[in-house]
Design goal:
Elements (H helix, E strand, L loop, with lengths): L3 H10 L3 H18 L3 H7 L4 H27 L4 H20 L3 H61 L5 H20 L8 E3 L8 H22 L4 H13 L4 H25 L5 H25 L1 H10 L1 H22 L5 H29 L1 H41 L3 E4 L2 E4 L9 E3 L3
Helix pairs in contact: 1-6, 2-6, 2-7, 4-6, 4-14, 5-6, 5-7, 6-10, 6-13, 6-14, 8-13, 8-14, 8-15, 9-10, 9-14, 10-13, 11-12, 11-13, 11-15, 13-14, 14-15
Length: 443
C-alpha cells in the first residue's frame, strides 16, 4: 500500500533526493516564520498597509520578468545553479529586511524576495525532474510540495509563538529566514546530479516554425491554466470575506477551514498523486477543473443560503476544493514537462510559471472587486472560466491521442526503412538506431 511515509522514503533514496529534501524543509520552515507577518513588519517600520501590499506586488511582478531568463538558463543545461541562485536571491532580500529596517531596505528586499520566489518554481521542478527521472518525477515533485507545505505550516506556527513575545522579534525572524535560505542554497549546491544526458538546443537546421510548434502545446496549457491559478487565493482572500462579511460567521470558521485544507493537502497529496500515476496527467488536470468549479458553485450556494446552514455548506465544500487543488498541483508541472521537447523544458516551465504568476498577481484585485459587487459576480464567472479551461484540456486530450497514434504509425514505418514525413520536416530512417546530440547536465 502506498503511503506518504513510503513515498517520502523513496524521495530520500533517490541519489541527491535526501539533500534536496533537507534543503526544502529548512528553507520552507524558516520562510514560514516570517511570511504571515511581513506586512505587519512593513507597517512597524513606517509603511502603510496599502504601501506594503503594493511593494510586495511590485516585487512579485519584477520576479515574473526574471522567469524567462531562468527558463533559458535551464535549457542551457543548468540544473543546480538556477535553484541555488533562487535561494540566494531570497536570502539577500530577507537579510536586507533584517539589517536595513527602513522603507528603502524593505522595498529592495521585497523585490529580491519576489524574484527568488517566482524563479523558484521552474528551477526546483527542473532539478527534481533531473534527480528523479521520468518514472518517479510526479511522486518526487509531490513529495517536495508536501515537505514545503509541512515546513511552511510548522514555521508559521513557531513564528506565531515568537511574535507573541513582542513585535521586535520580527527583525530576527527575517534574519532566520535569510540564514535558512542560505543554508538551503549551500545544500543544493552539493546535490549530486545523475549521469544522464540533457539535450542541447535544437540544431541550426531546425526551423523557427518547428521550435514554435514545440511550445505551442505548452502555451495552450498555460492559457487554460490561468483560471485554475485563482484557486490559490480562495482560502486566504475569498472565503474569509464570504464567511465574515457575507455570512457573518466568526473568524474561527475561516481559520478552521484553512487548517483543515492544510492538513488534508499534507496527508493526501502524495497518496493521491501516486495512486493516479497510471492516469494521463492531462486527464487528471481536467478532473481538477471540474472539482474546483463544483466547489465554487457550492461556495456560491452557501452564501446564497445564508446563516448557519450556509456556513456549514461552505465548510463542507472545502473537501472537493482541496481534492481539486491536489490534482492541479500534482499534474500541472509533470504535464508541462512531458508536453515540451526536452531541450525546451526550461522555457516550457517558465511559460507555465508566467501564466500562474500573472494570475496570482491579479487575482487579489479581481476577487475583492467582484465580491464587492456580490457573491454571484465572483463565483459564477470563476466556475465558468475554470470549466472552460477544463474543456480546453479535454479537447487537447483528444488531439494528443490522435497525434500519438500518428506518431506510432510513423514509428512503425521507420522500423521498416521507409521515408517518414512529420509536419514540415522530412527525414529518411533506415531501421537503425537514431542519433542525437546531447551534453551532460551542468550544475
Amino acid at each position: 500500500m502506498t503511503t506518504t511515509r513510503t513515498t517520502l522514503r523513496e524521495l530520500v533514496r533517490i541519489p541527491g533526493g535526501g539533500r534536496y529534501a533537507l534543503s526544502a524543509t529548512v528553507e520552507a520552515a524558516t520562510s514560514g516564520m516570517l511570511r504571515p507577518f511581513i506586512v505587519i513588519y512593513a507597517v512597524l517600520i513606517g509603511l502603510s498597509a496599502p504601501q506594503a501590499g503594493m511593494t510586495l506586488t511590485v516585487g512579485m511582478l519584477a520576479g515574473l520578468g526574471a522567469v524567462p531568463l531562468s527558463g533559458w538558463w535551464i535549457d542551457r543545461g543548468a540544473r543546480r545553479a538556477p535553484a541555488v541562485a533562487a535561494l540566494l536571491v531570497r536570502a539577500v532580500g530577507a537579510l536586507l529586511l533584517a539589517l536595513v529596517p527602513g522603507i528603502a531596505g524593505f522595498a529592495i528586499g521585497a523585490v529580491l524576495i519576489g524574484v527568488g520566489t517566482q524563479i523558484a518554481a521552474p528551477t526546483n521542478s527542473a532539478l527534481v525532474a533531473a534527480l528523479a527521472g521520468p518514472a518517479q518525477r510526479a511522486a518526487a515533485l509531490a513529495a517536495g510540495r508536501s515537505l514545503r507545505n509541512a515546513g511552511l505550516g510548522a514555521g508559521a506556527l513557531l513564528g506565531t509563538v515568537l511574535v507573541a513575545t513582542g513585535p521586535e522579534v520580527l527583525r530576527w525572524l527575517a534574519l532566520v529566514t535569510a540564514l535558512g535560505c542560505a543554508f538551503g542554497a549551500a545544500v543544493i549546491a552539493r546535490v549530486p546530479l545523475p549521469h544522464h544526458d540533457v539535450p542541447v538546443p535544437a540544431p541550426a537546421a531546425a526551423t523557427k516554425e518547428a521550435r514554435g510548434a514545440g511550445l505551442r502545446a505548452v502555451t495552450v496549457l498555460a492559457l487554460a491554466g490561468i483560471p485554475y491559478a485563482f484557486h490559490a487565493d480562495i482560502l486566504e482572500i475569498a472565503l474569509p470575506l464570504l464567511l465574515v462579511q457575507g455570512l457573518h460567521a466568526s473568524l474561527a470558521w475561516s481559520s478552521g477551514i484553512f487548517v483543515a485544507n492544510t492538513v488534508m493537502v499534507i496527508a493526501l497529496q502524495l497518496v493521491v498523486v501516486v495512486r493516479l500515476a497510471r492516469w494521463p496527467h492531462r486527464t487528471v488536470l481536467f478532473w481538477s477543473g471540474l472539482l474546483l468549479a463544483a466547489s465554487y458553485l457550492a461556495f456560491w450556494l452557501g452564501g446564497a443560503t445564508g446563516g448557519g446552514p450556509g456556513t456549514v455548506l461552505v465548510a463542507l465544500a472545502i473537501a472537493p476544493y482541496t481534492l481539486g487543488e491536489i490534482l492541479y498541483t500534482g499534474s500541472g508541472v509533470p504535464l508541462v514537462i512531458e508536453s515540451a521537447p526536452p531541450h525546451l523544458m526550461g522555457r516550457a516551465l517558465a511559460r507555465w510559471q508566467l501564466s500562474y504568476g500573472l494570475a496570482r498577481a491579479a487575482d487579489s484585485i479581481i476577487i475583492t472587486g467582484l465580491l464587492s459587487l456580490g457573491a454571484a459576480a465572483l463565483w459564477l464567472p470563476l466556475a465558468a472560466a475554470t470549466l472552460l479551461g477544463a474543456a480546453t484540456l479535454r479537447l487537447g486530450t483528444r488531439r494528443h491521442r490522435l497525434h500519438r497514434s500518428i506518431g506510432e504509425s510513423v514509428s512503425h514505418a521507420a522500423d521498416g526503412g521507409t521515408l517518414a514525413v512529420v509536419g514540415p520536416l522530412t527525414r529518411s530512417v533506415h531501421g537503425g538506431a537514431g542519433t542525437c546530440r546531447a551534453v551532460k547536465a551542468r550544475g
